[in-house]
């Protein structure tokens, strides 16, 4: 049995319909919802992480085959494998993973799939490279590519670099999607945890235009009096 066949066999054995029903509800798979039509096997993330460790030697091709699956958990496992493989100190391998990731964004089609993978692949790859791809993603019609654009900057934030986060946040202020408001507010909050003056400087310029959800996420860790002042517009 090949590695990929063994992986699919294990995924099938681990399936649980009761859990799948809960996950279909949680990830909004109903008509008109952001995850409409997605299929769930009913496997929790800790189990998938254990499988990732078990099948650590799976190839990039195997991971991409998992990304092509209709099952959400298969795609998540594929992304976990790609993130782990990207950690290897092999620049050719890293470039291959980054390139194939960017070619498969239509398969990275829910917020958990984006958030678990893009900082460790896209953000890490672009840390010391040209970042124009992030701005193309930020301007995309795809909700998930726009989320990749902002959440990938978490890698830069951890390194103390905020310029791209702020620039992409500015571009996404007018976005209509709540999942973008939450992700952008989350990244702004992470900036503020490291440099509150930078966060508040951004808010001073843009908070009147920010969706309320984005603002609430951004100021969540501020001292309560300061948080209330931003909410009430009394700054």
Please tell me about this protein's structure.
It is a single chain. This protein is mostly helical. The protein has 15 helices and no strands.
Give the ordered list of helices and strands: HHHHHHHHHHHHHHH
Number of strands: 0
**Which percent band covers the strand fraction?**
under 5%
Low-confidence stretches: none
Distance between the termini: 64 Å
Q: On the 0-100 scale, what is the average pLDDT? A: 97
Tally of alpha and pi helices: 15
Helix content: 55-70%
Rg calc: 19 Å
Structural class: mainly alpha
User: Tell me, what's the shape?
Assistant: globular
What about the largest sheet? none
Task: Reconstruct the topology from this structure.
Layout: H1 3-13, H2 17-26, H3 45-54, H4 60-67, H5 72-86, H6 91-103, H7 111-126, H8 132-138, H9 143-151, H10 154-158, H11 163-172, H12 178-194, H13 196-206, H14 212-218, H15 224-232
Helix pairs in contact: 3-5, 4-5, 5-7, 7-9, 8-9, 9-12, 11-12, 12-13, 12-14
Key features of this structure:
mainly alpha; globular
What can be said about this structure in brief?
This protein has 235 residues and is mainly α. The protein is built from 15 helices and no strands.
